[in-house]
Amino acid sequence: MAVRMENILSSYDASRNPVDPQAAEGNDPRYMAIPPGAIIPGTLPDFKIYVMVARRRVLWAANGNRVTPEQIAKLAEAGHKEVFIDLEEKIKYGEYLENNLGYILKSEAPSDEQKASIFSNVSARLVKDTYESSLAIGVMTKEALQRTQTMIERALIFIAESKSLDALAKMIGHDYQTYEHATKVLWFTMAFLKDNEDILEDIHTDCRNQDHIQKAEMLRTCGVAALLHDIGKALIPPEILGKTGPLTQIEWEVMKHHPLTGLAMLTDTNLPIFIKKTIAQHHEDFHGGGYPMGLDGQNITALARVLRIIDAFEAMTSRRPYKEAMPPLEAAGIMVGKPADGANERDQGMARCFDAKILRKFIIFLGRTRLSI
């Protein structure tokens, strides 16, 4: 501990960096922890940054822009895995992460786990902003769509790395929230399609004759559909969307409209037709009986069939207020039609929802992650 303290204090000027008189020991709700690897010298907003010294938060940098690479190196040398900003600066920090996401994901400073957390932070914030702005006017704005496309393009840098799957695996089992759910569906979809180029070609036949750059662009476009698949929920009443118990029949009918609502919200955007169809069809079942149109088989666009699988898997393996997260192996068993003894009627018939060929490849893909499949 003495060595770590010495390393920290070598970049600490007590005359300009006094102990925050309001700082409290332990967890203080007024502060937000951020990874040091997210600090890019010369680009951070005018933040105050604190570090923990002798169980007290000390003002380490009065202006984030003045932090040097040498100071950050000393933080790492001292073993600090987090620094702190005032919770009131959360919005500014979120904007900073989004603007610098590409650089952060390419940097060697953050760990893969930290990159995963940063990526989740940015995408969840973006989806939240998109939903809220869409709720206000009933459509998705060009600005929101551009932000989505830019974020996904930057995310490809990290998702292209095999280690990103290990970081994703650590996120499984966390609480289910619409924004975080959309992030994980995006990540799964892009990683899965990158690993299964033949499915990408089924989604859009032009891919069969495209070069690497063109296929990357198609992958990015598919990512937009994944991130926005539930955009129609922006117009679902919050008392229905956030209900912790079973929905009534009327509430369920309202919920089943969200794919078509999402399509309507995206009608005036320049997204390709197959993306709009995917948004509308992502709850259709391969053997019929899904919603909102009761399509089946090849009448459902290939990307919607992919999202039907990933959407269900992510929801089943996430913790909700009324249920615990299901182990990935158990979820996979239900999806292929082999639920555990005592499974309810819905679980027993779930295999009919999915394209078996794509589902088989998805489970093989999961086997290459750390999900115990």
| CATH C-level name of the largest domain | Mainly Alpha
How many extended strands?
4
Order of helices and strands: HEEEHEHHHHHHHHHHHHHHHH
Please list the strands of the largest sheet in the order they lie side by side: 1-4
Short synopsis of the structure:
The chain has 373 residues and is mainly alpha-helical. It has helices at 2-9, 69-77, 90-99, 101-106, 112-137, 142-159, 163-169, 178-195, 197-203, 212-227, 238-241, 249-255, 258-266, 273-281, 302-316, 328-335, 345-348, 356-367, and strands spanning 31-34, 49-53, 56-61, 83-86. It has a two-stranded antiparallel sheet with strand order 1-4. A two-stranded antiparallel ribbon has the order 2-3.
Question: Can you offer a commentary on this structure?
Answer:
This protein has 373 residues and is mainly alpha-helical. It folds into 2 domains: 2-89, no CATH class; 101-367, Hypothetical protein af1432. Helix content is 52%, strand content 5%. It has 18 helices and 4 strands. It has helices at 2-9, 69-77, 90-99, 101-106, 112-137, 142-159, 163-169, 178-195, 197-203, 212-227, 238-241, 249-255, 258-266, 273-281, 302-316, 328-335, 345-348, 356-367, and strands at 31-34, 49-53, 56-61, 83-86. It has a two-stranded antiparallel ribbon. Strand 2 (49-53) and strand 3 (56-61) form a beta hairpin. Helix 10 (212-227) packs parallel to helix 14. The longest helix is centred in the middle third of the chain and has 26 residues, at 112-137. 37% of the residues are buried.
